[in-house]
Amino acid sequence: MKWISHIALGTVICKALSIIFLWDLNYIHYAIICLFSVLPDIDSYVGLKHRTYTHTVYFAVLIPLPLLLMSTPAGVDIQSYILGVVAYLSHLLGDMFNPSGVMLFYPKRTVYHALPSHLRFVTGSNTEWFILVGLLIISSSLMGFEGSIQINKAINALDENEIVADVEFTYNGVNYKIENARIVLTDGNKIGIIYDKSLLLVDKRSIKRIEIKEMIKSSKDIKKLRMSLRRLRNYDKVVVAYSFDREAWNEFLGTGHDLYKYLKYDKRCRNDRCKIYVKVLK
Fold first, then answer.
1. Considering the domain boundaries, does residue 274 fall inside one?
2. Count of beta carbons in the 10 Å neighbourhood of residue 34
3. Do residues 100 and 51 touch, judged by C-beta distance below 8 A?
4. What gap in Å lies between CA 30 and CA 7, rounded to an integer?
5. Residues 132 and 179 sit within 8 Å (Cβ to Cβ)
6. What is the average pLDDT across 94-102?
7. What percent of the chain has pLDDT over 70?
8. Which of 42, 90, 84 is nearest to 63 (CA)?
9. How far is it, in rounded angstroms, from Cα 194 to Cα 198?
10. Which of 5, 31, 96, 198 counts the highest number of beta carbons within 10 A?
């Protein structure tokens, strides 16, 4: 395969992997994919026989090892290493489409092919160029899934986290673009976004984009508090129930600010000093 075909194949495979595992790919990851997709052919420049040592499974695992030294907030950068290994292996797969095949376990001389003999093609042939065009089309199509990765990642993380993110969505026919929004819960087909001290329950299908900035650990445990109506006015934590006597609890889902707006005309609250018991998500 030509170098550009190797890069296209490696990119498609790594993009598909990122969609399956909800990985975010940045420009560093794409640089890793491009580099390791062509790196096996370095043998031609360092005096080694072509398609021998550098075209083995051993080298695919060993050569990307320095990527583990890249640091992330979580520690060792396993994702970059895996992408390097997969991109390297994609090169071997591409060469296995060729009549010459690849000796994956060199110096053992067994030659491996990925296609039946009548479907194999030589490097630079018209078949390869058709395959390259197909890979570019697939790669472009997969770009549409990248936004959904962040959305699914956010939804999956909400059980144990509160998320700070830039969000774009449609709510009641209005388009919203909110920077550093707080995404606090998932409720069936909706997720809860706090905007202007109020809780918006947004249909997951209405979310166009989420760019996660921070994940904050949240136990989602419930604690009981006694608060004045005045304090609720600026309280932006999620309230799930309220009571006037701690015995009869009323279900509610919204922020303290939402509850303030709901109760401020209630006859049981004569003024802002009225005391209310609330159940709040930690």
1. yes
2. 17
3. yes
4. 10
5. no
6. 96
7. 97
8. 84
9. 5
10. 5
In a domain, 171, yes or no: yes
Same domain, 26 and 83: yes
Which residue range forms the structural domain that includes residue 121? Answer: 3-145
Inside any domain, residue 153: no
**Is 21 found in the same domain as 57?**
yes
**Which one of 198, 217, 236 terminates a domain?**
217
Total domains, the chain? 3
Domain co-membership, 75 together with 139: yes
* DSSP string of 198-245, one letter each residue: EEEEEEGGGEEEEEEEEEEE----EEEEEEEHHHHTT--SEEEEEESS
- Per-residue pLDDT at 85: 97
Of 4, 69, 62, residue with least CA distance to 37: 4
* Cβ 173 vs Cβ 162: under 8 Å: no
Cβ burial of 86 (10 Å; 0-12, 13-18, 19+) is: buried
- Name the pLDDT band for 47 (thresholds 50, 70, 90): confident
- What are the CA-CA distances from residue 232 to residues 68, 153, 279 (Å)? 49, 32, 12
Residue 7 and residue 115 in one domain: yes
Check whether 201 has a pLDDT greater than 70.
yes
More confident residue, 47 or 147: 47
Determine, yes or no, domain membership for 19: yes
Inter-helix orientation angle 27-38/78-95, to 10°: 40
3-state secondary structure of 271: coil
CA separation for the pair 62, 84 (Å, rounded) = 10
Cβ atoms of residues 212 and 154 within 8 Å:
yes
Query: DSSP character for 112?
Result: B
Cβ within 8 Å of residue 232, ≥6 positions away:
256, 257, 259, 260, 263, 276, 278
Same domain, 90 and 181: no
My answer on whether 12 and 118 are in the same domain is yes
Looking at the fold, whether 126 and 162 belong to one and the same domain comes out as no
